[in-house]
Amino acid sequence: MDKMPRKIGLLAVALAVLFFSASCAMPIDGKKPVNSIASARLLFYIHSTSNTPPDVRFTISGISVLSGGRGWVDVSNESIDIGALELVKRQAFLKEAFIEPDLYSGIKFKVLSATIKGREGQASLALPKPAGEIVMDIDLKIKTGQSSVISIEWDPENSVIGGYQFQPAVTVEPQSPSARGLMLFVSNSGSDYISVIDRSLERVIGAVTVGEKPMGMALSSLQDRLYVVNAFSRDISIVDTARLAVIDKIPLVAGIEPADVVFMAEAGNQIDGKLYVTNRSSNDVTVLSTGARRIIKSIKVGTQPSHIAADALRGEVYVANERSKDISIISSLDDTVAATIAVDSRPSGIAVGNNKIYVLNEGSNRVSIISPALRKVVGTVSLMHAPRRAFWGLGGRLFIANTSSDTVTSLNQLDVIARTSRAGKGPVGLAGDELRSRLYITNHKGGTVSVFDGVGEMVVKELSVGKNPYGAILLDR
């Protein structure tokens, strides 16, 4: 009689382990990802070189790549429509494909149809020769688990010969930024890689595979290392920002459900420092040494810590605790909680600027303004929408991402609401370029990054990235 309960107990444990393992392998959109560990990822983009192109359109019915040992390998059999007018000042995402690691020397598009607009409407063009194929040379060696961007540059003004023959002028842009000091990194939590955007070109120019469900990111003092928190694989990927490659990882053996991270430099040390990682389910912050690449301490904070921010001048780290309705102030000198300040319902974001701490209370539609010197709330701002994250800058303004309403609200230097503007679907992450007056917004539900003009306060461009983009961080040397 005592064997049956034991069997049931063992079965329950096995099912629980199976469920946990399956849930950890699933991205947040619920779809199981392709096994990128045993394969390599190619991301195909296209952009135009013309600002005033003719209305030329074409449809491709397949994409192939030329392998050194296996010949032409099909990576897509889908029909994709491409129009010159739609590419004016815009880069279009074509396809994500997983391939075998290898050396590849060519890309082939199969053109199904092509047209140009004339006086009587769209007129058909003769297809490229031979057999409607467009072949481009590449020199790409892609390794296991690696991601790479294939950016096609198209000149539509020189793609029609004799008024009837479509022979597209296309080349492959190499995966290297034109200005390495002007990059934007975006963590794609549903795709297990980060997108690299060249801010001078305002295009996606690269991708780096990291761990599972990349979330928060932080840059070192010299900005030569990018630290990416991977929530599902429970580790931190260290990315070389010059080579755009992962060079090491730090296991997160303490803490449950790591989400966000900040970097704090050590006094007198320009290379190494400490990382502070919030753990949503264990209610603590993990402290790691970047020099030793190991955990040195765990700090208990409030309930369900989510967002984290730092003030390097004050040597303090600020943690928003959603369930306990407060923020924890950690002193980086001894890594202890120096103060706990009560705020409103569900604080989910923090921004630091103008000698103030701005806390975004998603549950009460309010911003709590805290004096770090007085250690208390000195003001509040009521909003129409639930705030999620914020960025302080671009002329001393506070820009607030309202995730549920797909908008961005700005406060002026007097902490008064100035304007609410449309963003993409589910805006979450914010990063600002002060010199160019650009705000970059990750749209978690839309799979895009909005390029927001800080002067006109409007979206001027959308860049396609991976699934569920979360964080955004500028490299600005």
Structure described in brief:
By secondary structure, the protein is mainly β. The chain is 5% helix and 57% strand.
Task: Considering the chains and any ligands shown, give keywords for the structure.
mainly beta; 40 strands; disordered N terminus; 477 residues; 4-stranded mixed sheet; 5% helix; globular; 6-stranded antiparallel sheet
Please mark out the parts with pLDDT under 50 across 5 or more consecutive residues, or reply none. Answer: 1-36
Rounded to an integer in angstroms, the radius of gyration calculated over CA atoms is: 25 Å
Number of strands: 40
**Count of helix runs:** 1
List the helices and strands and how they pair.
Layout: H1 3-24, E1 40-48, E2 56-67, E3 71-76, E4 80-83, E5 91-99, E6 102-118, E7 121-124, E8 133-142, E9 147-155, E10 160-161, E11 165-166, E12 169-173, E13 182-188, E14 193-198, E15 203-209, E16 214-219, E17 225-230, E18 235-240, E19 245-251, E20 258-265, E21 273-279, E22 284-289, E23 294-300, E24 305-311, E25 316-321, E26 326-331, E27 336-342, E28 347-353, E29 356-361, E30 366-371, E31 376-382, E32 389-393, E33 397-402, E34 407-411, E35 417-422, E36 427-433, E37 438-443, E38 448-453, E39 458-464, E40 469-476
Parallel strand pairs: 1-9
Antiparallel strand pairs: 1-5, 2-3, 2-4, 2-6, 6-7, 6-8, 9-12, 10-11, 13-14, 13-40, 14-15, 16-17, 17-18, 18-19, 20-21, 21-22, 22-23, 24-25, 25-26, 26-27, 28-29, 29-30, 30-31, 32-33, 33-34, 34-35, 36-37, 37-38, 38-39
